[in-house]
Amino acid sequence: MFVRDVMTTDVVTISPDASFSEAMELIRKRGVRRLPVVKNDKVVGIITEKDLLSASPSQATTLDVWELTSLLGKLKIKQIMKKDVIHVHPNTPIEEAARIMTDKKIGSLIVLENERMVGIVTETDIFKVFINMLGARENGIRYVFRVQNVPGILSKILYLMYQCGGNLIAVTTYEKSRDEYNVVVKVRDLYKQEFERKFLEGMPFASIIDVRE
Q: What is the pLDDT of residues 106-119, one digit of tens each?
């Protein structure tokens, strides 16, 4: 799966010469949390709702409402936007985009192709991928197996599920240590008792550590 498969292409943008008030109104009206800042069809920055709130005077300010409104009306986006915009290509693997966001501690990435913005990918898009990968919206039995790092064990578990009528929904693995890893499997139509009996009889290098229906 690639960034192009999950990115938003109808991106709400703003000019660097727009005011603070215009940005806040746009964010609230369009229901977004960040605005790429675009000038002459080029991305020159990004502004988030958090940036705008941080730029607002605190509640302890001595300014009256008229002075405050005037001050914020004069504040331009180019004065508070982040200019160091991190971007990816539409063909970037989705896990690479997730790694970049995690490492950089950011909530979105601008998507550029031939130096032109074609979309934006956010942490919400990544969460949706995670939900789909784990089959979180599907009904079924969810197993977590602890598996020793022995070749062929995972294929044996999945084949046993097939033999017991199982129809796979999702399979995900993550490393526990160099010697073992966990496997999350969601399956439907499985003859549960038959599977678990045969599993206990014939899987010496794996164990069931969690089962949920």
A: 999 999 999 899 99
Residues 126, 180: one domain? Answer: no
* DSSP code string of 66-106: HHHHHHHHH-BHHHHSB----EE-TTSBHHHHHHHHHHHT-
Sorted by sequence, the CB contacts under 8 Å of residue 182 that are 6+ apart come out as: 144, 145, 146, 147, 173, 174, 175, 176, 209
Residues 25 and 62 in one domain: yes
**Burial readout 166-194 (b: 16 or more C-beta within 10 A, e: otherwise):** bebbbbeeeeeeeebbebbbbbeebeeee
- 148's tokens: 């020793």
Same structural domain, 21 and 63: yes
Domain region containing 111:
3-130
Claim: this prediction has a pTM higher than 0.90: no
